[in-house]
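Hi! If you just cloned this repository, the fastest way to understand the data is to look at a raw example. We've pasted two of them here, unedited. The first protein comes first, obviously.
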Amino acid sequence: MLAYKLSKVLLYIFLGIKGIFRSLDRGKTWTSIGDPTKSIGNDPNVMEASLEQEGLVFIGTNGRGIYYGTP
């Protein structure tokens, strides 16, 4: 039997032109992790967190490229 202990709960949210945000405290507070000078737009179609680097998240945008946010 495999046992996995979740040490942290990371939540991510995309808020249109406001950017990518992350919460380390189950949604009580949010921190912007995107670049405010590079708008993602309002039409992302996928968001995926990296399994290799904690805090790294990618957003795909229907042909406008792949954006990412880091802590």
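Ok, and the second one:
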Amino acid sequence: MKIRILVVEDDDKAYKQIVYYLNIINRERMASRGIEDFHIVRAISVEGAVALLRDSVTLNNSIDLMLLDLALPRRDGEQFTAGKDVGLEVLEFARKQNAVRAVIVLTIWSDSEFMLRSFRGGVHDFVDKKDLDATLEERLMICWESVVHHEANRVFLDRLRTLIPYGEQGVAYLFSKCFSDLTQAVRIHSSQLCDEIRERHGLGADPRTKDPILMHVLALEQASERASGQWHRQMGSLGIIDEKELQEVSLDVLLESVRKDIEYAFIGRSVELVMPKATNLRLNCFPKDVITILREITLGGIVDLDERARQLAGKRVEVNILPHVNQGRIEFICNDNFHTMDQALMEAINQNMFAPPGDRFGRAWGLSIAQHIDARGLSFINVAPTRQGLGTIVTFTITSAFA
């Protein structure tokens, strides 16, 4: 990934020196940590830095690393006249707005009180401006590893926070379907049984009849109608009845949203993620549901990786797209090459059964929930082993994807 670095430095010579040392960082070392390149942005004052940070929050495009010189003028065009504390205002704003993932302070000062205040403000590390050539690369890489670890944990936690409510709805939906089928069958057969009894015993259609058998059947029919009505009213609070309408959205925007959200987890587990390039397709779908399912079919596999598997080189997850525009459907095919799911679990998921979470809330559990996310009958998931038997293929099909 291309990581965004905000350099807050008013001195032109110092800024050029920082950029120079960033550009000569070992490329293999960068690649091993998931870094393709640096996108460097500069601010030269407190107000300029705050404005860039505010924009990054507004655009939901956080700065990955900030290299912050604390000796700054307050406004662009002014000369530095304040003390070394003025830069702490930038640090405070970044911390409160959660606008930066990590901060490295560039400084020539080393007194303990100053360093303590900086750490309390959210600083991750310090680099001596007089020693950039010897320390900047090492400190930046250590800081980046901390960012990846933190963000990967966030991705896995968000996975649980997203899937658990869907799982609760899925269980409720299954129960609702079974209960609805039962009450509908009782109502239909009760009515037919009443008609049959009346005809056989010549009781007519008087609902006030005192025939014991007919009274029991009528009571069963009425109870079924009441139960059906009460359950239908409760379904809304369980999230089963959803008044949302289909939305037309860009597939490229959906895919980019998924990639951007989960890529830290893949970097943290040293797994290559390959997503489709521009498709120029537009889908009719429920975007939140589709994003959740795409996240799970790509991310779920690495949850099950044990420590031994994490050390293997060449781990890869690849997503391909097969649009069938004339048929109105689209397939997302996700392949991995690092383990094959248990056959019994694959069959259970394909049969719309819930898999137990286990101690990791693993892939089978996640896919079984993803299978039930779309209670509207517009999509389904199929799980199968690869032909080589060295991985798992998950196919996510949207059946009414195109207008």
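That's it. A detail worth noticing about the second one: Residues 2-123 form a domain with the Rossmann fold fold (CATH 3.40.50.2300).
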